[in-house]
Design a protein that fits this description.
The protein is an alpha+beta fold and 157 residues long. It contains 4 helices and 4 strands, in the order ββαββααα. Strand 1 and strand 2 form a beta hairpin. The longest helix has 20 residues. 18% of the residues are buried. About 8% of the residues have low confidence.
């Protein structure tokens, strides 16, 4: 996955968890930062999903404190090869109309599950994956979806 574009130095300031996104027009920008890693990972996953929905590629570096917390440490690089971004539409099934509240809750469950999948590196979904996600979102309550998302995120540590 070598693209040749890497940060030349760690982010400025005291070591903390930081996600840096690269945009060709503006260079490296801080996209998320926190004293804990989990919020940064969730933000990265959500941002990657947003870029993919726009048909764009993500280039991300995650930095954090060293073991003793005094210096920076490079934790992760996400760089996608050139080509078209994987953004396939979910298959649409015939359904009864949902209320606005039901649709918001469904969208929230979908977002939680997609962010967790992206956090573990599963960002290029195929049609079967989209079907499985839709089935889970439609058939499983939010607490259970959040528990599955926690398992996925914990498996990535």
């Amino acid at each position: 996955m070598g693209t040749g574009i890497r940060m030349s130095a760690p982010p400025a300031g005291e070591p903390r968890f930081v996600a840096m996104f690269y945009r060709p027009a503006s260079g490296w920008k801080v996209a998320a930062e926190s004293s804990a890693r989990s919020p940064v990972d969730h933000a990265v996953a959500a941002m990657i999903q947003t870029l993919h929905s726009r048909g764009e590629k993500a280039r991300v570096e995650v930095w954090g404190p060293s073991e003793d917390g005094s210096t920076w440490r490079h934790l992760q690089s996400i760089s996608e090869p050139p080509g078209k971004a994987a953004s396939q539409a979910s298959p649409v099934a015939e359904e009864s109309p949902r209320s606005a509240r039901e649709e918001r809750l469904r969208d929230r469950r979908h977002q939680v599950l997609m962010a967790a999948l992206a956090a573990v590196g599963h960002t290029k979904l195929e049609a079967a994956d989209h079907s499985a996600v839709a089935r889970l979102v439609d058939d499983v309550d939010e607490d259970t979806i959040r528990r599955v998302a926690q398992w996925l995120t914990a498996s990535n540590r």
